[in-house]
Design brief:
This protein has 15 helices and 26 strands. With 579 residues, it is of the alpha+beta class. Helix 2 packs across helix 13 and helix 6 runs antiparallel to helix 14. The radius of gyration is 28 Å and the shape is elongated.
Length: 579
């Protein structure tokens, strides 16, 4: 089959008879199971998939990366796209999303035209789990929920007093505790007593409660109940180099940029793989597509790059149903603070178009449409809570919001456990929703990967212009949407050279009369920066997407001359001509 002039290499023997890989999308895989599964994929599809470890986690687990591409042309000679997941410990659905994408790519190659074209002409680097240690803690029989990695930070000591969150009744959940307190800020809803609502600012004379995380208390004095921060306070997503700030400005930042082995492994890989043009990082939850910047307004971004981000975002909104928004403008935890992360680093330092996907929106599932992503958690109408509770009752079958039940707490005495099981209802989709949710993303990822620059051969020929003197013409072009340099940020930073043309031959096949054996040509434009046909802006160079190399050589008729052109991000092409 041919797809846009690219021959689809359907080289798997009898692909229709190959049994499909079994992946359970309604459950999460622990590290050993996940490793076994992706090794099985690599073994089953050796022509399309390789597996390697890019480093070790803090507890010594391999961080696996799968390279998906038709290996008849090596990945290093193609534009590439990065996809990773689960940098935050409890955000396990990201791993499910990568596995779903992997399965689609492998099983639809040779059947789906776009996937075939993708793997024939591009490469994808897939990391199902950046943070295997934190994920293991989250999936333990008695779970520990931490933000990211499992080493103690910023201090080594265990707390000597206060409440530490944990599963105190051994049911595998970490819920909430409620206890009566005359000065408590919470009260029962008048018609739905399971649900707690805020006490009015000047309200008195009612029955009020304290709401605390489920956990044990050290050295309780009968009065004070401070909730301890996790001893494991790292946030791996704040450990990247771009605008890294110390702990007093950015919680979880780590000792220095890339101090954590998981982050260092990713940064090392990205900086060595010059062909990465973009990336998607799977997180949970909010049901949004997040783009840079996280630290400055859109006005600080090169307009051309902003327009590309907006184009990608519109496609993402159409295919996923998620809104595409700016982190700085619409997703800050506090209006006076900014956040950094992988997408900013990949764009700002490497000039690749990068997005964070926050999988899953329970609010949207419950029918809430007019809500502001982060602001909603600070304040929203009590009617929203009633809708959320009804949705949990109907859709989550009582597992998302747990009816309060009595428990004899070892320090507090009689309390009640219950309320939201955040891990089940919020941090991840419930099992029956997971496959439906992660199925939204492959098309958008494929679109982005296919937008990358792609070097193609236009013509290669020799013309005798005098006895045994030949002009060698070698014409290449960028057939991708993006320019060869990918972004204006990358162009400004000179992160890539222009297209490199080389000529060679066996032995003394020819002598160069004019031109060098290796020539650095220009960057090649794509189709990203064209205006409309009704635009009053001056027309651009219509052939800025191509370049013609020319050499004058002296050699014997029939001698073979090898020509190659390559670009770090746009791939490579070659041709063989006879004099």
């Amino acid at each position: 089959m041919k797809v846009n002039g690219v021959v689809a290499r359907r080289f798997l023997k009898n692909p229709e008879k190959i049994q499909k890989m079994k992946v359970d999308f309604d459950r999460f895989y622990k590290y050993d199971e996940l490793t076994k599964l992706i090794k099985s994929f690599a073994k089953k599809y050796p022509e399309l998939l390789t597996l390697e470890s890019i480093g070790k986690s803090g507890e010594g687990r391999d961080i696996w990366v799968l390279t998906a591409t038709n290996q008849k042309i090596p990945a290093a000679q193609k534009p590439a796209f990065w996809v990773d997941a689960n940098i935050h410990a409890t955000e396990l659905t990201g791993s499910t999303a990568v596995l779903y994408l992997l399965k689609q790519l492998m099983e639809q190659y040779g059947k789906d035209a776009r996937i075939t074209r993708l793997l024939d002409t591009r490469a994808l680097y897939l990391v199902p789990r950046v943070n295997p240690d934190g994920a293991e803690w989250a999936m333990a029989d008695k779970p520990r929920f931490v933000r990211s990695a499992t080493r103690a930070y910023p201090f080594m000591e265990d707390p000597v007093d206060g409440l530490s969150q944990e599963d105190i009744d051994g049911d595998g959940r970490i819920l909430m505790m409620r206890l009566k307190d005359a000065n408590g800020p919470w009260k029962k809803h008048p018609t739905e007593p399971r649900m707690m609502m805020r006490r009015e600012p000047t309200e008195v004379g009612g029955e009020y409660y304290l709401i605390l995380p489920e956990g044990n208390i050290k050295n309780y004095d009968g009065y004070l109940l401070p909730v301890n921060k996790s001893k494991e306070g790292l946030d791996l997503n704040r450990n990247f180099p771009e605008k890294w700030r110390q702990e007093h400005e950015q919680l979880g930042a780590g000792d220095y940029p890339t101090s954590e082995p998981e982050v260092r492994a990713c940064v090392d890989f990205w900086t060595k793989k010059k062909n990465i043009c973009g990336g998607v990082f799977f997180h949970t939850w909010s049901g949004v597509l997040l783009r840079p910047y996280g630290t400055v307004a859109d006005e600080e971004m090169p307009p051309e790059d902003l327009w590309v981000f907006q184009t990608i975002g519109k496609h993402g909104e159409k295919t996923t149903g998620y809104p595409a928004i700016s982190v700085f403008h619409e997703f800050r935890y506090h209006p006076k603070e900014v956040i950094t992360g992988t997408q900013d680093w990949l764009y700002s330092d490497l000039g690749a178009f990068a997005w964070v996907v926050e999988i899953w929106s329970p609010m949207r599932e419950a029918g809430l449409t007019d809500y502001k992503y982060i602001d909603w958690f600070r304040d929203h109408p009590v009617e929203d809570d009633l809708k959320m509770l009804k949705w949990a009752d109907d859709a989550l079958e009582g597992k998302g919001y747990v009816d309060w039940y009595a428990y004899d707490h070892p320090q507090l005495g009689k309390v009640e456990l219950g309320g939201w099981d955040r891990f089940y209802a919020f941090s991840n989709p419930a099992p029956k929703f997971r496959e439906r949710e992660v199925a939204k993303f492959p098309e958008w990822i494929i679109e982005q990967a296919l937008m990358s620059p792609k070097l193609e051969l236009v013509d290669a020929k020799s013309t005798e212009i005098a006895p045994q003197v030949y002009a060698i013409d070698f014409v290449v072009q960028n057939t991708g949407y993006l320019p060869s340099y990918v972004s204006k940020v990358a162009q400004k930073r000179n992160l890539t050279r222009g297209v490199i043309g080389e000529i060679s031959g066996e032995g003394k096949a020819f002598d160069l009369i004019e031109g060098k054996a290796r020539i650095e040509g220009p960057q090649l434009e794509g189709r990203a920066h064209y205006g409309t046909l009704t635009s009053f802006f001056p027309a651009t160079n219509a052939t800025a997407d191509r370049h013609a190399f020319r050499w004058i050589v002296r050699g014997k008729k029939g001698a073979k001359v090898a020509l190659t052109a390559r670009h770090d991000r746009a791939g490579a092409v070659s041709a063989l001509v006879k004099l």
